[in-house]
Design brief:
Length: about 425
C-alpha cells in the first residue's frame, strides 16, 4: 500500500471512530430521557403541572427538545444539557407546588370539588375564568409573590365554587330545564298552564335545595325528576287539547276529552266485572274501583296466609310420618294414612299451580277455598240478555277442559253472574 493510501485509510478510520463515538454518546442519553419522562409523569399525578405551571412547562419543553436532538443525532453534550435543563426545571417546580398545598389549600380543594362536579362540562365559561385566575395565582406563588398569589387565589376560589355550584345544578337540573324551555318555546302554557307551572315550581324547589346544600342531592334529584315528569305531562296535555280543539272545535273539545278519560276507567271496571257510572262524575267510579282493589288485596293476603298454613301443615305431617316410622320401625296403617294426606296435599298444590299456569291474568283467576279449587273466568263475556258461549271463547274453554281433567273424580259447580241490565226475572232465567 502506498503512503498516500495509508494516510487516507487512517483518516477514514479516525472519522468512523469519532462518528461511532458520538453516536454511542447520543444513544447513551436515551435511558436518562425515559427516566426523566417517568419523573414528569409522577409529578403530574401529584398535580405539580397545575401548582407550578411555568416550571413544569419548562421541564416538558426541555425534555421534548432533548428528544428531538436525540432523534436528529445531535451531539451527546447538547442532549445531556437539555436533559439537565429539564431536570432543573422539574426540581424548581416541586418546591412552589409544596408551598401552594400549604398556603393555598382551600383554593386547591375548591378546584378539586369543581372537577368532581364536572365544571368544565357543565359550567365551561365560569370554569375557564376560574382556571385562568388559578393559574395566575400559582404563577405568582412560583415567583415568590405570596401577597398577589393569595389575592388571585381568593378570586379564583370564588369562581371555582360558583363553577362547582352551577355544574351541580347543570347535572341535576339539566333535563328539567331543557324540557321546560322546550315547553315555553312551543307555547304549552296556552293549553296546560297549571301543569307547566307545577313543573316550574318543582324545578325552583330543586334549585333551592341545591343552593342550600350542594353535597346532599337526594331530594334535589327527586324534585328535578318530578319537574321533568310534569314538563312532559304538560306537553302531552297541550298536544292532546290542541289536537282535540282542531278536530272537534272549542265547544265540543272539552266533552271529547272527558269522554276519552272515562273510557279507560270503564274498561278497567268491566274487566273487574263492575259497571262504571259517570253520571255523578269520575269520583264515585274511582272510589268503587279502589274499594274493589282493596278487597282483592285482602283476598290475596288471605290466600297467601292459607298457602302458608298449608305449607306448615304439610311440614307437620311429614314430621309426624317420620316420628311414626321411627317409633314403629316400619309401615303401619297410621303411617300410610298420614302419607296419603301428605301426597294429597302435594298433588292439590301441584294441580293448582298447573291450572294457574294455563291462564293469563286477564283470562282467569285461580284460588282455593278450603279443599275446593275455584276458577273465576274473567275472559268470557256474554252478550247482554244471552247465556251462550261464542266461538271467541273456545280457546279459553279448552283450557278449562285441561284444568278439569286434573280432577277426574271431583264434583263441579258452575256459577254465573248477570250484569245490572234487564229485569230480575229475565236475569234469573239466564
Amino acid at each position: 500500500m502506498r503512503n498516500s493510501d495509508l494516510r487516507f485509510f487512517n483518516r477514514l478510520s479516525y472519522l468512523l471512530i469519532v462518528a461511532l463515538g458520538c453516536a454511542s454518546a447520543v444513544w447513551a442519553d436515551a435511558p436518562e430521557i425515559e427516566q426523566l419522562a417517568a419523573s414528569l409523569q409522577a409529578q403530574r399525578a401529584e398535580q405539580v403541572h397545575v401548582l407550578s405551571p411555568r416550571n413544569f412547562e419548562a421541564a416538558v419543553a426541555s425534555l421534548e427538545a432533548a428528544r428531538k436532538d436525540l432523534e436528529r443525532g445531535r451531539s451527546g453534550e447538547r442532549v445531556s444539557a437539555k436533559i439537565a435543563q429539564a431536570q432543573a426545571s422539574l426540581d424548581r417546580a416541586v418546591k412552589p407546588a409544596a408551598a401552594a398545598r400549604q398556603l393555598l389549600n382551600t383554593t386547591i380543594r375548591a378546584r378539586e370539588d369543581a372537577l368532581v362536579a364536572k365544571a368544565p362540562e357543565f359550567a365551561p365559561e365560569i370554569w375557564r375564568r376560574a382556571e385562568q385566575r388559578f393559574r395566575e395565582a400559582m404563577i405568582e406563588n412560583e415567583n415568590g409573590d405570596l401577597k398577589n398569589a393569595q389575592r388571585r387565589a381568593a378570586e379564583s376560589e370564588v369562581l371555582l365554587r360558583d363553577a362547582e355550584l352551577n355544574a351541580v345544578k347543570g347535572q341535576v337540573l339539566g333535563e328539567a330545564r331543557a324540557l321546560i324551555a322546550q315547553a315555553d318555546q312551543t307555547r304549552v302554557e296556552r293549553f296546560a298552564p297549571r301543569t307547566l307551572q307545577t313543573a316550574k315550581r318543582y324545578l325552583a324547589e330543586a334549585e333551592q335545595e341545591i343552593q342550600r346544600n350542594r353535597y346532599d342531592l337526594m331530594l334535589p334529584r327527586n324534585l328535578a325528576a318530578q319537574a321533568s315528569y310534569e314538563a312532559r305531562h304538560a306537553s302531552y296535555l297541550a298536544r292532546l287539547i290542541a289536537q282535540t280543539v282542531a278536530q272537534r272545535g272549542e265547544e265540543a273539545a272539552l266533552e271529547a276529552l272527558i269522554l276519552s278519560w272515562e273510557e279507560p276507567l270503564g274498561r278497567i271496571a268491566s274487566n273487574l266485572d263492575l259497571a262504571a257510572r259517570f253520571d255523578e262524575g269520575m269520583e264515585p267510579a274511582i272510589k268503587e274501583l279502589g274499594e274493589h282493589v282493596q278487597r282483592q288485596r285482602q283476598d290475596l293476603s288471605r290466600l297467601r296466609q292459607e298457602l302458608q298454613d298449608r305449607t306448615e301443615e304439610i311440614a307437620a305431617l311429614r314430621k309426624e310420618v317420620e316420628r311414626l316410622e321411627a317409633r314403629l320401625g316400619g309401615v303401619s296403617e297410621e303411617r300410610i294414612a298420614l302419607q296419603r294426606r301428605v301426597d294429597a296435599q302435594e298433588r292439590l298444590r301441584a294441580n293448582v299451580a298447573r291450572i294457574e299456569s294455563l291462564f293469563s291474568a286477564d283470562e282467569a283467576r285461580v284460588y282455593r277455598q278450603g279443599e275446593d279449587v275455584v276458577i273465576s273466568l274473567l275472559g268470557i263475556k256474554f252478550p247482554s240478555g244471552r247465556s251462550t258461549i261464542d266461538a271467541n271463547s273456545s280457546a279459553l274453554m279448552s283450557k278449562v277442559q285441561q284444568a278439569l281433567a286434573l280432577f277426574p273424580d271431583a264434583s263441579i259447580t258452575v256459577e254465573g253472574h248477570t250484569d245490572a241490565h234487564g229485569t230480575d226475572s229475565a236475569n234469573l232465567i239466564l
